[in-house]
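Quick one, tokens below:
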């Protein structure tokens, strides 16, 4: 980025920006190219980094949007808007297009915080601030930078359909959140919240409502193997699911032969089973040091059972122990003894998992400490202070770097903490220490 400085090349700001855009198109590193484009944008607009401006301005709202919804606390309008791009459901984006239009049409007027956010989302998406904008046409890029929000809305946002606005909001939310090293690390690590697999196509629920409307127990969410359907039935269902509606799917199912209908009914009424998932590598290594804890899977009622000595448990979902012979256990839901024992260390089964601080079964509100989920009791114990990797003083923050092919946290003090976005998580730890220590 220092190459092409005006004191060296004697170029105008416009020609410097054009040169940097051209270099970014040829750069093999996506991170370096995005940083170069952001630098060129700041030259054209004569302001600091556009990306850092949005991160600083909306970081608090973005962090709040990832938090669970609460009915007891008031939520600001800007958090409600930006939360529409998060994982929380339901997320209605029915009127977001009109809100974008209204916010961008306000010229020369005092903007409300909500309109200010909506306008920034439109500008950030149109200029691809948080994604790789290459290939770049320098002239078109500079014209877009100098255009009004209303012109950007008309060109990039207005032609989109309502479902596409979710991607617009999602891009902005993730881009702002990744400006925080801890949030970037949390979003790129393995998720611990996913407990069931996604459906092969998205009409399993419609099929279940058509064939078994009175089904009381939750059914498994999975696709139906094509080998069990006739070729005609498979073609009919996939054509409707690719480009159709629930009414078309319902009409197609009623026209299928009885044999194919029975296959559909068998799969969509299969009782849901929570699938064990591995935790991230850090938690697996931590929990492997604890004594082994076990859960049981009942093959009769397809339910997971846990037993912890000395704790009161609800009637279903846990084991019943024979008082005459403690080695004999049975499922408390169905009384079945066809049980399979599974080691819980390093796994999450629905909400059932161990605390990565003490090794006990996690109950109550979980707390996040680094990459580990801990219980409330462990969260009350203060975390020992980290030591700066450069000067060995008390650290006040951290950055994510790459060491031995894996992401790791590097603790740094206030003096040596770089500005947000200076280093990529893919930057080798040795290079980061070298540049910070200069």
């Amino acid at each position: 980025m220092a190459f092409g400085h005006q004191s060296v090349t004697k170029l105008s700001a416009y020609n410097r920006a054009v040169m940097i855009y051209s270099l970014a198109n040829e750069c093999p590193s996506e991170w370096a190219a995005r940083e170069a484009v952001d630098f060129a944008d700041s030259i054209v607009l004569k302001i600091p980094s556009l990306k850092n401006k949005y991160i600083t301005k909306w970081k608090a709202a973005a962090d709040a949007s990832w938090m669970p919804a609460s009915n007891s606390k008031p939520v600001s309008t800007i958090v409600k808007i930006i939360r529409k791009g998060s994982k929380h459901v339901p997320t209605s984006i029915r009127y977001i297009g009109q809100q974008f239009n209204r916010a961008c049409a306000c010229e020369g007027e005092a903007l409300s915080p909500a309109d200010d956010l909506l306008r920034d989302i439109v500008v950030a998406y149109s200029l691809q601030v948080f994604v790789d904008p290459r290939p770049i046409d320098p002239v078109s890029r500079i014209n877009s930078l100098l255009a009004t929000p209303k012109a950007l809305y008309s060109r990039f946002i207005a032609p989109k359909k309502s479902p596409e606005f979710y991607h617009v909001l999602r891009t902005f939310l993730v881009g702002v959140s990744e400006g925080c090293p801890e949030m970037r690390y949390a979003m790129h690590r393995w998720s611990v919240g996913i407990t069931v697999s996604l459906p092969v196509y998205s009409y399993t629920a419609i099929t279940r409502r058509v064939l078994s409307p009175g089904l009381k127990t939750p059914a498994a969410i999975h696709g139906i193997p094509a080998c069990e359907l006739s070729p005609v039935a498979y073609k009919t269902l996939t054509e409707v699911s690719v480009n159709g509606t629930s009414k078309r799917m319902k009409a197609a199912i009623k026209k299928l032969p009885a044999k194919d209908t029975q296959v559909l009914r068998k799969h969509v009424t299969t009782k849901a089973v929570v699938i064990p998932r591995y935790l991230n590598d850090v938690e697996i290594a931590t929990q492997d040091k604890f004594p082994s804890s076990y859960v049981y899977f009942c093959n009769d009622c397809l339910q997971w059972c846990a037993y912890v000595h000395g704790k009161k448990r609800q009637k279903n979902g846990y084991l019943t122990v024979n008082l005459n012979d403690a080695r004999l256990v049975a499922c408390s839901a169905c009384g079945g003894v066809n049980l399979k024992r599974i080691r819980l260390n390093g796994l999450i089964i629905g909400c059932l998992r161990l605390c990565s601080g003490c090794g006990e079964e996690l109950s109550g509100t979980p707390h996040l400490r680094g990459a580990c989920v801990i219980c409330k009791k462990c969260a009350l114990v203060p975390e020992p202070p980290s030591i700066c990797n450069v000067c060995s003083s008390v650290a006040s923050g951290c950055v994510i770097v790459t060491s031995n092919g894996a992401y790791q946290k590097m603790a740094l003090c206030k003096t040596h903490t770089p500005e947000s976005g200076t280093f990529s998580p893919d930057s080798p730890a040795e290079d980061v220490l070298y540049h910070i220590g200069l």
